[in-house]
Design brief:
The structure holds two protein chains of two kinds.
Chain A lengths: L18 H19 L7 H7 L5 E7 L2 E6 L11 E4 L17 H8 L3 E6 L11 H20 L4 E6 L1 H12 L5 E7 L9 H8 L5 H8 L1 E2 L1 H9 L5 H11 L4 H14 L5 E2 H13 L2 H4 L3 E2 L2 E2 L9 E6 L7 H4 L2 H4 L5 E6 L10 H5 L1 H10 L4
Chain B lengths: L2 H4 L2 H24 L2 H31 L5 H34 L24
The chains are: A alpha/beta, B mainly alpha.
Chain lengths: ~375, ~130
């Protein structure tokens, strides 16, 4: 008869495990659990650092705060007329090239446009005296000459975003025979009366722009960011709460963090530029009555007589339509069009809505004028 | 997301806040657009600038006594770094020009192929 062997008794004392081993196992278990249950927490910060501005580009020209980039064409055949995007001097250009599939620049390149971009870098103290004239008559003018020399085409389409659109309009009005073939402005302010909060602030006698500029030289990006946040003070907090509600959605988390990073990444402005903008544009509203000057030259937007497209965002709280809708009437072009698209100041050009709303409409308008 | 999560009161509060944010923001913005607020903000800014100047001057002396870098020193360093970045940008531009010239030459260097340009003959789809 077979006898069952009694099971070996377990040792009463478990083998000693080092504290490091316990820490390591606990850390692994926590990481596994988080990775399994909360996908949003898997996002490593360095991944987000490299995800913006991924369309291949080369630096063509640099001076002071200007950087002119050329995006490498991806097709064998491109439109004859190159496109130059002028960014706002307070915004980083990567909002137009956030990530593959969400990049306005990539879209243009894939549609067959030869794309250049004027992106700005933060000014240093030595740039404090750069005014609107230096931006328009020197930096942008020279960048356009470099585009012409680089691609061998004298015609050019300019797309300006926000204040970049304003600079593009000033340039087009000053140099009507500069080879500019088409002008596109995204949400470009021309009527300061439509920017009620800024107007109210700078009109106050207590607001001394000269003293601010004299004291600081360069207006910090944080100050510009705070003034933009003041237009919708709780929006950032709401975005953060929305992020919490969608933390299990990887795509949402990534997109939200990219936008958030860009929104907080405002550029500083040279003091002289800020002074002229506040004094002549915001306080004086001089573009509307034709008394705005760049250097000693008066600006008449009626001198813009080339094909012109203005795109405004219906729910834009930074440049409300009240501040931009007069532009179409001021330019002297016969071939001009305005499109008002649902969306905000940023979602107009970047993000899911832009892919289906703005970009195809722009391509339809631009393609026939780029041959 | 499960049903329990849908009924989570904190989540519901967050959703309510997100939906009503625009109205709350508008109320705050209206308040900031008030004449008294504008005056107060202007005065605050003047005082802040004055305080900033006073504090910077006294702090600079204090830091110098402790043999520590002041804000001015950090700004100087930032400027120097910016100048180095400018120089790097100039080198990048020069390199690109050299590559373009190489690509236009008889012996095309392998690295220069990226600068070869496509034909500028594209037509809109509706014109083809």
């Amino acid at each position: 008869m077979a006898t069952r062997r009694a099971p070996a008794s377990r040792p009463l004392v478990t083998p000693a495990i080092s504290q490091e081993e316990i820490d390591r196992q606990v850390q692994r278990a926590v990481e596994r659990t988080l990775a399994r249950n909360i996908p949003g927490l898997r996002l490593p910060a360095p991944e987000l650092d490299i995800e913006v501005g991924q369309t291949p580009k080369e630096l063509v020209y640099a001076r002071e705060t200007l950087r002119l980039y050329h995006y490498r064409p991806l097709l064998d055949e491109i439109y004859r007329v190159p496109v130059l995007i002028i960014m706002s001097p307070v915004s980083r250009g990567y909002i137009l090239d956030l990530a593959a599939g969400q990049s306005f620049v990539e879209y243009l390149v894939l549609q067959g446009y030869d794309v250049y971009m004027i992106d700005w870098v933060a000014p240093r103290r030595e740039h404090a005296a750069l005014g609107i004239e230096a931006f328009v008559c020197e930096m942008i003018n020279e960048a356009m000459e470099h585009v012409a020399a680089d691609c061998g085409e004298s015609d050019l389409t300019v797309i300006g975003y926000c204040l970049g659109g304003l600079l593009a309009c000033l340039h087009a009005a000053l140099y009507p025979r500069s080879g500019l073939k088409n002008l596109v402005c995204f949400t470009t302010p021309v009527n300061a009366d439509g920017m009620t909060l800024y107007k109210q602030w700078v009109n106050s006698k207590a607001f001394d722009i000269d003293r601010l500029v004299a004291e600081l030289g360069i207006i910090p990006g944080e100050m510009i960011n705070a003034s933009i946040q003041a237009l919708r003070p709780l929006q950032r907090r709401a975005n953060q709460l929305q992020l919490l509600n969608n933390v299990d959605n990887d795509a949402f988390v990534k997109a939200n963090l990219r936008f958030d990073r860009w929104a907080a990444d405002q550029l500083a402005l040279p003091g002289q530029f800020t002074r002229e903008f506040v004094r002549d544009f915001l306080r004086g509203n001089q573009l509307m009555d034709g008394t705005f000057h760049v250097g000693d030259k008066a600006i008449d937007l009626g001198q813009i007589r080339l094909p012109f497209l203005h795109v405004a965002a219906e729910y834009d709280h930074i440049v409300p339509t009240a501040a931009s809708r007069d532009l179409i009437g001021l330019v002297g072009s016969k071939d001009k069009q305005e499109i008002i698209i649902k969306g905000g100041h940023v979602s107009l050009v970047a993000g899911g809505n832009a892919v289906y709303r703005l970009w195809p409409q722009l391509d339809r308008w631009l393609s026939t004028r780029s041959v | 997301m499960n049903d329990d999560d849908q009924l989570n009161p904190v989540r519901l509060w967050r959703e309510w806040f997100v939906k009503s944010e625009k109205a709350w923001s508008q109320s705050l913005t209206d308040m900031m657009g008030d004449e008294r607020f504008s005056k107060g903000m202007g005065r605050y800014m003047q005082e802040a600038l004055h305080t900033h100047r006073m504090f910077s001057e006294s702090m600079a002396q204090y830091l110098a006594n402790l043999n520590l870098p002041s804000r001015q020193d950090i700004l100087d360093l930032g400027d120097r770094l910016g100048q180095v970045e400018d120089a790097l940008a100039a080198v990048q531009v020069e390199l690109r020009e050299v590559r373009t010239r190489l690509a236009q030459g008889v012996n095309v260097a392998p690295a220069a192929t990226a600068t070869q340009r496509p034909a500028r003959t594209r037509r809109p789809p509706e014109q083809i």
